[in-house]
Each structure stands twice: as structure tokens, then as C-alpha cells.
Write a structure and sequence with these properties.
The structure is a homohexamer of 134-residue chains. With 134 residues, chain A is mostly helical. Chain A has helices at 15-28, 35-40, 44-58, 68-82, 85-97, 102-124. Chains A, B, C, D, E, F: InterPro entries: AhpD-like, AhpD_core, CMD-like.
Chain lengths: 134, 134, 134, 134, 134, 134
């Protein structure tokens, strides 16, 4: 496993990977590239495609009909349901940079809990879809 | 299974269940009680507790720091990740009543897809949490 | 997909598969073999191994320290969490044959709902394991 | 993330939170409040609602048609399927306090493993629901 | 929900969507565009990005170090674990076009079942990672 | 929890468990028995059944229509989707012993990510199964 999960530093990165690192740092106004991207650098094509989509969908100045903070909450809700610690921690930090308050975070969590509960009640009772919802 | 998943109509409901049905109809300004609640009526205590929380957390006039539509999107994101068809259909309808547009729905879906992808990339690369995120 | 998901009838089954079908019918005192086993018959080795374990773990006269009904509830709880409709329906029927009441079923469901909710709260708050639990 | 996942001690807790802590300690006859509740204290309303349901559903003297140990096993089965380490550790301890033996725990685990396997076989073979189960 | 899940036909598709449809039909040598793409057409940007990745990763002539059939099996294994009926059916068909035999399909399923079982046993026993695996 | 998750050493193992340990070491040409098996030793019957299936399905010289490395990739894909760290680490090591390269691992991961994304898009758009796939 060792070699597959090493993190690739800027100094040892190929030009194609460095270009993504540069864009990440410029976009986020930081000189730090998170471990996620430094691991993904083992697969430059997926690194590029993922960063492009992440930037487009969740970036601070991203276009779209939902504001960036709402999208971070959606991202967090999924990551919490899936139990991904890394994703929860990194996107909670990202959301805080976009203005997330503690009260908003706990309220999102309550909704995530309720959804996970009621999803299973719907399955357990084998609730048929209402005609009005078809 | 049959008896466990029947839907309980208003006429056959116990007073305690009827009280919840009445509140659902009054709150939603409708004379229709969704199948979910009519199935859950087999367990009056859970019916009451679940409706109370659903109303408090997702109700149109719910208090809190997140607006009701944002919370419906969070609920939908979780339900989609969990593959709950009933929950997706009923809350997509609820979200539409709160003003959800098609563009917002598809944008939420794109974020849900990205989160489900990157959650697994983080696991597959066994990415360690950055010191700055601890 | 067609050929892969056909159900194999007794008449068209190989001797090795028929032996399992015979044991299922004798054990359950019925002349019906559920679709699950008739699909699994495409892979006789897995059919045998799975039926052997199912009979040993969940059979009416199964040995062990948990009674058969409790184990059906455990099986159902997992199947509901995973959203497997076939598994929920077939094991709810099996549990009813072992004496499951509607009240027990709804109480199990309430616990399944609570577990699914609190599992996510624990992740969302990134709760560290208590020293006393290590 | 830091501020969101701090644990709230009794001394720094609001009266409403203290009331729940007091009830937890009195009910469990201990002067220790688990980290889960001390994290959930960031959201007093969810803390109250969750503790109330946990006490009612899983409490030692809980009413209902299933005994408390059976319900802990159901809770554990779900938590294991979802991969929630905190939930597994805390409820394994709770179940031990209610008399769980090692043999019962391993038998539950074997059923959880079987359910998770057969759930996927049912999906993979796209097994149609038997007419007799509808 | 209705408007969000309609399927967009070629005739009613925008030029950008038509270009993707054209490429799908040319690549697959068919005049049929699967429902998945016709639904995703509501979000042209995600349609383009997803088709590009699907073609690159799973296409018959895709480059890479894994052959296309192996990658279809990986795709199927994930979809079965997640319980996605649409994905199982559409990619089982795709895999058959790439030469998948029934014996290979059932063998893959047996591995998927084993993985889902042992994943939970590892969690249930809280197995620590071996020093030799770190 | 303590007693339930201890690892059972060869010296303290019952003869039936030792027989499995011996077979594991002989099969893998090593004198090390992984923690997973030493935990599972608490349930000798499940230990035997699981090892038998693991050896038959994933063993280096396993019969079947899929080669052992392909089956390790399938096993890994499921384990990553389920977020099982132990399973990912131990089977990544097993796959490396069977010749897995870093390029193959990252390509598998990209497919796993794509499947997890598109599974949810299919659910979110409630895509109906094509007539041609039924």
C-alpha cells in the first residue's frame, strides 16, 4: 500500500500536476495544497477533472443557482452519511471559510440525522409512492 | 408482511393518530396525508416524534439559521445517497412547493455526485487528515 | 442481463442444485422454493454455502445463544438499512412465521431509525471515543 | 472544525443541557456523561429529543415488546453495517452492561455478515419479489 | 418531480446536448441513447463531463492498464453494493457486449457478497490494522 | 468491548482454530496470521467458513473464470465504497502480492469514483429502466 498512498510534494510533481497545484493555491489564496490533492496526483487525469469540477461547483465565485455555502452543506451532508472523516473535516473547514456558523452546522446535522432515520422508516414500512407524487 | 405495511386511513385511526393527521393537514393546508405518515401510524409514538421533528426542522415557517429550501436540499442529498425512492419523490415535491427550480435541483445533484465520488477517492488513497484540519 | 437473472426451476436444475432445493423444502415444510434460491442456483457452490449458513444461523431449530426470532430481527435491521426490498419482504415473512408481532416489528423499526440517525450525529460531530470505551 | 466538535463539560453547560446530563447520570447510575452527549450539547433541542428517544427505546427499564438487550443488538447491527466506530464501541459497552455475552456478540456478527452478503446477491441477481410475498 | 425527471429527446435537445448524443451513438454504433443520458441532459455541463469520463474510463477502446471488461466488473460491483438497479441493469448489458459470460458474472457476485460480509466482520470485531500493513 | 475484540494468538487457540491458522500460513507461505483472522477466531465456525470461501474465491491458485487479481480489484472496489479501512489496506497488500501496479490501482479508483457518482445521478433523476434493458 505504501507507494500508492504517498503524498506528492510540489517539488516532485510532474508539470501537469504542478499546474493544478498552482491553480489550487492561486484560487484559494494559500500556499498549502491539501493532502487530498497530493494523493490524487498519482492519477493526473483524475486530479485535473476532479479539481475542475470542484472549482466549478463549490468554488467561492462559482456560478450557478445555489450559493457556495449551500453547496458546501450539501457536500457535508453526503460525506457525513457516507462516514468519510477526511471529507467531513476538510469541507467543514471550507464551509467555515465561506461563513458557516456553528448554529448552521448543527442545524444541518439535525436534518441529516432526520433524513437518515426517515429513509429507513420508509423502507421498513415499504411505503408505496403516493399517486400524487408519480 | 401484509398487515405491517397497510396504510391507516383517517376513519380507522386512533384519536392520537388523528391528532397528528389533523396537524399535518392544517400545517400543509391540504386534506391529503401522505402514505409515509399513514404507514408510520402503526407506531403512534414514533409518528408523533417524527412529525414534530419534521415540522420543526423542515416546516415552511420553521425557525433556525438555514432557510427551509436549503434544508430540503440537504434532506434530498442524503436521500439520494441512500437510494430511497420514496424520500426522493416526496421531498422533491415538498421542495418544489418551497420554490425549488429545476436548475437548483440539477445543481444539487451534481454536488451530490461529486461528493459521492470524492468520498471514495479519499478512502481509496487513504488520505491522512491534514495537520491544519485537526 | 436476461440470461443471468432467470430463475431456475426444479425440473431444469442440476442434481447438485436439486439437493439444495430438496433440503430447503424439507426444512421449511413447503413445496415452494423462493426466488432468491432459484436465482442463486446459477452458482451452485455459492447456493450451497449460503443455504448452509442461512439454515445454521437463522433456521428454526438453529443452535446458538440467540433465539431465531431475534436473529431475524437483526437480519431485517441490516436489510432495511441497506434498502434491500427483496430481503425485507422475504425475511419479514420468515419472521412472522417465527411469531413476530406487528408491535415487535414497529419497535425494531424505531430502533433502526434511531441508530441510523445517531450514527450520523456521531460522525458529524466527529465524536472521539471515550477513554472508558477503549 | 475545532469549535464545532468541542465537548461541552457540565460546568460550562447551559441549564437546559445540564438537565439532560443530570437525567443521563441518574438513569445510568454514573457520574460520567459520554462524549456523544457532550458533543450533541451544541444543539440542545436535538440533545433533548435524542436522549428522550434513546431512553425510551433502549433504556434498561424501557417498555415495549422487545427486551432491551435485543434492541441493543439491533442497534449494533445497524451501526456495524454503517461502519460507525463510535457507535459500535459505545453500544457494545451498553449491551455488555445489559448482559451481552461474547458468544451472543459473535453470533449477531455472523448474522450481520450474512445479511450484508445476501442483500447484495439479491440485488446482483435482480431477484423479483415472489408473488407469495406481495 | 415531473418536470425534473423527464427524458429529453434528440428533437428537443439543445445543440450542446445533441453533440453528446451524437458522440454516444457514434461511439456505441447504435441509434439509441439510454435513458440515463436523456435524463442527465437537464444539466448539459454534467452530461458532457460524465460522458467524457465514462468514455475514457469504460469505453471499448479505452486506454489504461485495466481491460474494459475488468472495469465494467468493478463498476458493477460498486453499483450492486449501492443497490442501484438502473446501474446494474445498464452496465450488465454493457459488460455482456464486451464479452461477459454468465460464469464470470456469478463469480463477481460471489466476491461482492464476500467483501460485503467481511467488511462488516472487520468493523464488528474492530480489527486493528496490522503493523505490517501500515 | 475489550474481551470481544482481543486477538487470539496461536498459542492460545483451540485446535480447530489452529487448523485454520496452519492452513492460512501454509497457503500464504508465511508465518504471520493477519489480525482479521485472529479476531474472527472468537467464532470458529465463521472463521472456517469465511477462510474456506476467501481461499476458494480469492486464492492465488483459485479456480474460476476470473483471474485472482481481477477479483482482488472487485473486492477492493466494494471495500472502498463501504469505507472499510482495514479491508482496503489488507487487500491492497494482497493485490500487490498478486502483481497489482500503482497505475492499475489508480485506474480502479477512478472507476469506483465514477460509479459512486453516476449511481446517485441515476437515483436523483429517477431514471426509468430502458425497455431494451428489461
Amino acid at each position: 500500500m505504501t507507494s500508492m498512498v504517498t503524498l506528492i510534494d510540489y517539488e516532485h510533481a510532474a508539470p501537469r500536476v504542478r499546474a493544478v497545484y498552482d491553480d489550487i493555491m492561486a484560487t484559494r489564496k494559500t500556499n498549502h495544497v491539501n493532502n487530498f490533492w497530493r494523493a490524487l496526483a498519482h492519477d493526473p487525469e483524475t486530479l485535473e477533472a476532479t479539481w475542475t469540477r470542484m472549482k466549478r461547483l463549490l468554488g467561492s465565485g462559482s456560478e450557478g443557482t445555489l450559493d457556495p455555502l449551500t453547496k458546501e452543506l450539501i457536500y457535508l451532508a453526503v460525506s457525513i452519511s457516507n462516514g468519510c472523516e477526511y471529507c467531513v473535516r476538510s469541507h467543514a473547514a471550507a464551509a467555515q471559510r465561506k461563513g458557516l456558523t456553528e448554529a448552521q452546522y448543527t442545524e444541518m446535522l439535525a436534518v441529516v440525522g432526520l433524513a437518515n432515520e426517515t429513509n429507513r422508516l420508509a423502507v421498513g414500512y415499504q411505503v408505496p409512492v403516493d399517486d400524487s407524487l408519480k
